[in-house]
Amino acid sequence: MRLITKIGLGIVSASVLFVAGCSTASKTYSEESLGLRKVDLYSENTVTPDETKYSQAVAGTSTKFNRAFQDAPPMIPHSVDGMLPITVDNNQCVGCHTPGVAETLNALPYPKSHMTNFRPETSLAEDGKIVKNGKAVDNTSSDKMEYVTIKEMASLSGARFNCSQCHAPQSEGQLVENTFQAEYTSKDGASKSSWEGTSLTEGLDTLMK
Ligand code: HEC
Ligand code: HEC
Questions:
Q1: How far is the CA of 207 from the centre of ligand 2 (A)?
Q2: Is residue 136 located within the same domain as residue 98?
Q3: Left, alpha or beta for 71 (phi > 0: left; psi -120 to 50: alpha)?
């Protein structure tokens, strides 16, 4: 009953709008006014993007950026000249951000999550079955997450070796105004991540299995 009334009201207001629309038919919108960039949409040379300005400051002299949200990977505030690409033989990030070294350089050490193995040990049994964490598995994409592994390691996990896969230098140019306001769940969430200990498994239904 209530639904019918709503639909009825919808039709009435749509037709009012339609009538109103007809009476102001002279109002037109130019293509230039439609997009964010306020110039015609067919020629790229009318658009000058803001310059990309990566920090020139050497590590140790830069100013950190606030995290985008709680436990977001921090952006790199210092110059990465000569550090990229990261290779097996050359990972300078590890040289400064390894726990124990980092503190002496006033850098943050990579956190606990980077020394945690989230990958189940996987092998192939003789009968062709896939074995995960010692258990033969029929379906490797089980959505019950029963093979998720959360194993602390003594050192950096191989999965985190390629730092620039997740951490990128941040340009200081202003592209478009950004009014997003992060609401951090921990007091120092703008400058420190809290993803360790029990928070690693929050919301994950794995450990009971
Ligand atoms: C020479 C030592 C050194 C090297 C090499 C280095 N960093 Fe840094 N890093 C620092 C210091 C010190 C800071 C703190 C900001 C500052 O003082 O410039 C920092 C800050 C950071 C931050 C910001 C952390 C935060 O809390 O906002 C990230 C992310 C980062 N570095 C990642 C990297 C990555 C990735 C590499 C490799 C491409 C790297 N760093 C190489 C010393 C280093
Ligand atoms: C797979 C993505 C990924 C890779 C690879 C990765 N990180 Fe991170 N990093 C993150 C995320 C996400 C966070 C924030 C959540 C957390 O603490 O785990 C983070 C946080 C950090 C922090 C801030 C720690 C704090 O206490 O606030 C530092 C420093 C850091 N990473 C350095 C590194 C360095 C150095 C490497 C390479 C050796 C690296 N990361 C590789 C995703 C990654």
A1: 24
A2: no
A3: left
Does 86 contact ligand 2 (Cβ within 6 A)?
no
Domain span at 134: 119-152
Query: For ligand 2, atom 41, which residue shows the shortest CA distance?
Result: 163
Chain segment 140-182, per-residue pLDDT in tens: 776 666 777 888 999 999 999 999 999 999 998 777 778 899 9
Q: Is 98 a domain residue?
A: yes
Chain mean pLDDT for the chain: 83
Ligand nearest to the CA of 66: 1
- Are 170 and 141 contained in the same domain? no
Which has the higher per-residue pLDDT, 3 or 47?
47
Is the confidence at residue 21, as pLDDT, over 70? Answer: no
Inside any domain, residue 16 = no
148 Cβ below 6 A of ligand 1: no
Give the Å distance between the CA of 111 and the centre of ligand 2.
6
- Span 187-193, mean pLDDT? 96
171 and 141 fall within a common domain: no
Domain tally, the chain: 2
Q: State the ligand closest to the CA atom of 161.
A: 2
User: Is residue 204 a part of any domain in this protein?
Assistant: no
Tell me the pLDDT band of 24, cut-offs 50, 70 and 90: low
Task: Establish whether residue 98 lines the binding site of ligand 2, counting it when its CB lies within 6 angstroms of any ligand atom.
Answer: no
